[in-house]
Amino acid sequence: MNFLIVDSLEQYEEVVEGVVKLFSNENWFRGHSTAEYRLVPNIYREDRTQFRCNLLGYNSRSLMNPQSGYYHIYQYKIADDITKRKYPKDSFIERMYRNQHYNILTPLLDFSTDPLVALFFAVENHSKWQRKYSTNYIMNEYGDNLACVGKQAGAIFVINPSYLNYKSLGTEKLLDSNVLNKKFILNNNLPFAISPSVLNNPRIKAQSGKFVCFGLKMEPLDFYEVLEKDMTKILIPNAAKQEIFEKLIEKGYTYQKIYPDSEGLAKEANYQMWRDYNNRKKA
Questions:
Q1: Taking a C-beta distance cutoff of 8 angstroms, is the pair 234, 146 a contact?
Q2: Is 9 helix (H, G, I), strand (E, B) or coil?
């Protein structure tokens, strides 16, 4: 894996441009508020599910198979909402997209084709760690001397979805949700990249969303050595997060853009109040 450190929006855009030139195929981006987080979907995160992955042998049907029933129950309960939104008849994978939107545990890991959307998620929690983690330390999680970054550094992963599918499925083609059936999804072993066929979810559309669907094997995506040569991890020092976030806001990457619904309005209101409060403290 390639590791890079940037501490400004301008430097980030330069680095992304270089990565895009290096890998000619489409690149997908995912931002993490904390650099030590791995590329693993929420259904396989031990802190969320309380399942011990190592005890399940990193190959579990105890999580993947029951989810089918859960999704049908949930789908029934929000039938009125589906009717109001005039959704077309959804495939199994498209129902998973919507469940992901409502924070139901799924094997999907969302990415974006927009590098600034990923950056937004990596730096939006700047105020949370501003006081507690103001000092720096050596980031040596992978045994590399990467220089000093904040303890709560953010990170953006850059992956090549075509290469992922080539290694997982033997084809560089991005899978369309229309051609995926339930049996394939629930019995596949390795992660693969999916491109939504219909962007009928406002949030997926706003975030230029794409997905990696994990299979029965529970290892994080960044665990596979065969994928590392086409994967980049860009680190954002904690001390640089706030300035980068404010510049993203100036470029129009606001909470309302990222979350085009009532949640976005609430986040935007809270952010404006926090910013006004801090400006008064400085005055």
A1: no
A2: helix
Query: Residue 210 gets which letter from DSSP?
Result: E
Angle, CA 237 vertex, CA 264 and CA 101 arms, to 5°? 25
Question: Could you tell me the residue ranges of all domains in the chain?
Answer: 2-252
Q: How many CA atoms lie within 13 A of 64 on its CB side?
A: 25
User: Residue 209: which of 124, 126, 93, 128 has the closest Cα?
Assistant: 93
The answer for residues whose C-beta is within 8 angstroms of residue 51's C-beta and 6 or more apart is 44, 60, 62, 63
| Contact status, residue 235 vs residue 153, Cβ threshold 8 Å | yes
Residue keyed to tokens 């979810």: 201
95: nearest Cα among 116, 72, 114, 118: 72
Convert the pLDDT of each residue in 174-189 to its tens digit.
887 666 777 777 778 8
CA distance 175 to 197: 9
Give 68-123 pLDDT, tens digit per residue: 445 554 454 554 455 445 555 667 777 777 777 777 778 899 999 999 999 999 99
Q: How far apart are CA 246 and CA 268, in angstroms?
A: 13
Contacts of 109 (CB under 8 A, 6+ apart): 30, 39, 40, 41, 191, 211, 212, 213, 214, 221
Q: Which stretches does DSSP call E strand in 48-188?
A: 108-112, 136-138, 148-150, 154-159, 175-176
